[in-house]
Amino acid sequence: MRLIYRICLGLLLSFRFLTKAGYRSEIFYGSKYAGDYHQRASFTTMNRYPGLFSICKDFFNDKPTLRILSFGCSTGEEVESLSHYFPEAEILGTDINKRSLRVARSRYGNRQKHFVHSLSAEFNETGNFDIVFCCAVLQSTANRTTADNQVSDWPFHQFESAIVSLDQKLSDGGLLVIDHCDFRFTDTCVAAKYEALPVEHNPITRDRPTYNTLNQKISDLSENDRVFVKRTKQD
Ligand SMILES: C[S@@+](CC[C@H](N)C(=O)[O-])C[C@H]1O[C@@H](n2cnc3c(N)ncnc32)[C@H](O)[C@@H]1O
Question: Which of 63, 72, 56, 62 is nearest to 202 (CA)?
């Protein structure tokens, strides 16, 4: 029975590889940038987080000159969705998968919406964002799909260093939005600079495992805040 399952799975993945350019790119760039990659799957969709987008819009109360970062933007639907909530904002999407970026640029790139590679000098040098979105990026699919995965498939230190670099790009008083993670933002070394925004669904409970700083599973559920305000120097 197990052998039949494996053969069927192998055939399915081979078919996917041959017919889906997006899947091929996940494998190609996943191996090219192995040490820097977080979530490999590039699934995304238009207006995926309406609740989170609305919370941010209300927080900034239509302030016109916002700079927004979508980290792990995939093929650009998150950036495009954000442009409907923030028509005046400058929005930057970044991803590690170059094929996804090419698709994003061709579908949505214009004077308002830019896309750059996350390991480029250009991205390294940019900053001063008012909102940073990092949704469904800092996780590994295996942690949710492997039965009883007691040790995280990718390490806490990679999660924390990604969060530290996003913190450096966010202005004081700005919003950090993180959703669908394997670890807790509150376990990172920058968490003390932030406070959770007291809004509905913050925190939210999800049916997915949570891991600690030692990469050990501590719960089959996650109960995390998703929207954090970065304290200003006066706070
Ligand atoms: C599941 S998609 C999430 C897309 C979108 N944020 C959403 O929630 O709909 C995860 C994306 O993270 C990207 N990613 C993985 N590691 C990354 C890294 N180091 N820098 C930037 N993007 C990365 C992947 O290429 C993929 O496009």
Answer: 56
- Helix, coil or strand: residue 70: strand
Residue 77 lies inside a defined structural domain of this protein: yes
| 130 in a structural domain | yes
Q: How many domains does the chain have?
A: 1
Examine the pLDDT at 234 and tell me if it is beyond 80: no
Provide the strand spans (E) within the chain: 67-71, 90-95, 113-117, 129-135, 170-179, 194-196, 204-206, 210-211, 217-219, 222-224, 227-230
| Confidence label for 1 from pLDDT (cuts 50, 70 and 90) | confident
Is 26 within a domain?
Answer: no
Residue pointed to by tokens 């053969």? 7
Nearest CA, atom 25, ligand 1: 97
Ligand 1 binding pocket includes 167 (Cβ within 6 Å): no
